[in-house]
Specification:
The complex is a heterodimer.
Chain A (H helix, E strand, L loop, with lengths): L10 E4 L14 H4 L18 E4 L3 E5 L4 E4 L4 E3 L3 E3 L3 E3 L5 H4 L4 E2 L4 H12 L5 E4 L3 H12 L4 E5 L6 H18 L3 E4 L3 E7 L2 E7 L4 E3 L2 E4 L3 E3 L11 E2 L2 E3 L5 E3 L5 E7 L4 E5 L5 E3 L4 H15 L13 E6 L2 E7 L6 E8 L4 E8 L2 E8 L5 H9 L20 E2 L5
Parallel strand pairs in A: 1-2, 6-20, 8-15, 9-10, 9-15, 10-11, 18-21
Antiparallel strand pairs in A: 3-4, 4-5, 7-16, 12-13, 13-14, 17-18, 19-20, 21-22, 23-24, 24-27, 25-26, 25-28, 26-27
Chain B lengths: L13 E4 L9 H5 L4 E4 L3 E4 L8 H10 L5 E4 L4
Antiparallel strand pairs in B: 1-4, 2-3
Classes of the chains: A alpha/beta, B alpha+beta.
Protein name (chain B): Ferredoxin
Organism (chain B): Methylobacterium aerolatum
Chain lengths: ~400, ~80
């Protein structure tokens, strides 16, 4: 908003007591001990030119009176409002077990600092529940620290709900070769306790994995409870927006005074046929915030928000990057490199069009694929995007699970 | 307890790298070897809060990045 010329008063409200910080290091170098959690505070051009209301949660929204209700009993009035209340770690299914000493999750700075302390104390065994990106990163950190670790997930291979088994299998092999005890096709059932502390995971098949630390990495839930009663269309999957980023009410009417951005915003993505998506990506939070910031500052609406989704994940010294959205892909082809060498690019297709690409240690090739996805280029892609003859491409089922 | 959000930060510089953009050309590692490092083939590790003495090195790293992925906040400038 400042960059777009807005020079009126701005208030930034947050339930955490910290100014904005960078989350990606929390599941990587903060856990290895290379970085203290508090150095993750982000650069900001705002400085003291805004009113920070930190450590106070928003608890309600009254759109008629244009006020936000606060946890401390106060209220905050607005002319324009940005909803960026984000997500929180999905808790373990059984509350009492999730509260046991020795059970951790990672979302905020304090979570990461607490888990770092626990890992530094030299646990005998770490159980990571959930083999998504955060789970894989934490398992890799444990191996970097020399700690025995089990990675537990009902899917057949790590990350396979997002990238499919065809690409997830070789990534699983990398973790296995680094010493991770992969427990795929295994569902955690109970977190057991001994002397009031977490002592192991009981799997649904009856197997017990003894461990003194559990990391619950089951994804995120969106912070939309405070919007209950506001008349906005919101649920655990996000708050609905129109194609520009203005939130809509239960009857689909946009509120021109309120926009949403980041993990909490569910919006129709033009690249994916207007399908509503809520993206938990670092780059998306930046790009969508800039977009709606311009709108709230009063700029013309222009084109709908259509940035190509992208993210990265650093797992040990392996970098996994992605552009586009793999959901709904009916085919995948390795177009560069070789999974056996831990260096490749896979392109995902749907109905004969390129919709996503995943690169492992091959970041320099990805921008080229980003353009193919942006333009919905035919799948399989043509040379010169390939480093092999097109007819030799091995086109496979992505194997989502 | 003092408000953690307003406590003075010991090192004034703040560095953030957009790792979506980073393509591991490693120019930052030459410009500021004590603050940027590549692990494996392309996993960048960097110091997000360098000391004031590193200011010149950090600025060289920022300028030399071929994809301009490095952002620096420097209240001393």
């Amino acid at each position: 908003m400042r960059a777009a010329g807005f020079d009126g008063p701005l208030t930034i409200l947050g339930d955490e007591p910290y100014r904005p910080y960078d989350r990606p290091p929390l599941s990587k170098h903060v856990l290895t001990g290379h970085l203290p959690a508090d150095v993750t505070q982000l650069p900001s051009s705002l400085g003291d030119g805004v009113a920070w209301r930190l450590g106070v949660a928003a608890t309600g929204l009254d759109r008629d009176r244009r006020i936000v209700r606060l946890a401390d009993g106060g209220t905050l009035s607005y002319d324009a409002l940005l909803i960026a209340s984000g997500t929180r770690a999905r808790p373990w299914v059984h509350d009492d077990e999730g509260r046991l000493p020795g059970v951790f999750s990672i979302r905020g700075r304090d979570d990461a600092a607490a888990l770092r302390t626990a890992l530094a104390a030299g646990p005998r065994h770490v159980a990571v529940i959930g083999a998504g990106f955060i789970g894989c990163e934490v398992a890799a950190v444990c191996r970097d620290l020399g700690l025995p670790v089990s990675l537990i997930d009902p899917s057949p291979s790590p990350l396979s709900r997002v990238i499919g088994r065809t690409v997830g299998d070789p990534i699983g092999e990398v973790h296995r070769s680094r010493g991770v005890d992969l427990r795929m096709n295994c569902e955690a059932d109970r977190l057991e306790a001994s002397d009031g502390r977490f002592s192991g995971v009981l799997l649904k098949d009856g197997t017990r994995i003894a461990a003194d630390i559990a990391v619950v990495a089951l994804g995120a839930v969106r912070n939309t409870e405070w919007l209950e009663g506001s008349g906005l269309s919101a649920d655990a999957g996000g708050v609905d927006c129109d194609e520009h980023g203005f939130v809509i009410d239960g009857r689909g009417r946009p509120d021109p005074f309120i926009a949403a951005a980041g993990d909490v915003a569910r919006f129709p993505h033009p690249l994916y046929g207007g399908r509503r998506v809520a993206l938990e990506h670092w780059g998306h939070a930046v790009a969508q915030a800039e977009h709606v910031g311009r709108l709230l500052a009063g700029e013309d609406r222009g084109l709908p928000y259509a940035a190509v989704p992208n993210f990265w994940s650093t797992q040990g010294d392996m970098v996994v990057k992605s552009v586009g959205l793999t959901e709904g892909a009916d085919a995948v082809a390795i177009v560069h490199g070789d999974p056996k060498e831990r260096r490749f690019v896979a392109v995902y297709g749907r109905a004969g069009r390129c919709i996503a690409a995943v690169a492992v240690d091959s970041a320099r090739w990805l921008p080229a694929y980003s353009r193919l996805i942006e333009t919905a280029a035919p799948f399989p892609p043509d040379a010169p995007a390939l480093d092999r003859p097109r007819k030799s491409l091995d086109i496979r089922d992505p194997g989502f699970a | 307890m003092p408000d953690p959000a307003t406590r003075p930060v010991t090192n004034p510089l703040r560095v953030n790298v957009d790792l979506n953009l980073c393509q591991a050309y490693a120019q930052c590692c030459y410009a500021a070897p004590r603050h940027f490092r590549i692990d494996g083939r392309e996993a960048l590790f960097y110091d997000p809060a360098p000391s004031a003495e590193a200011r010149a090195d950090i600025e060289r790293a920022r300028i030399s990045c071929p994809v301009q992925a490095i952002r620096v906040e420097d209240p001393g400038l």
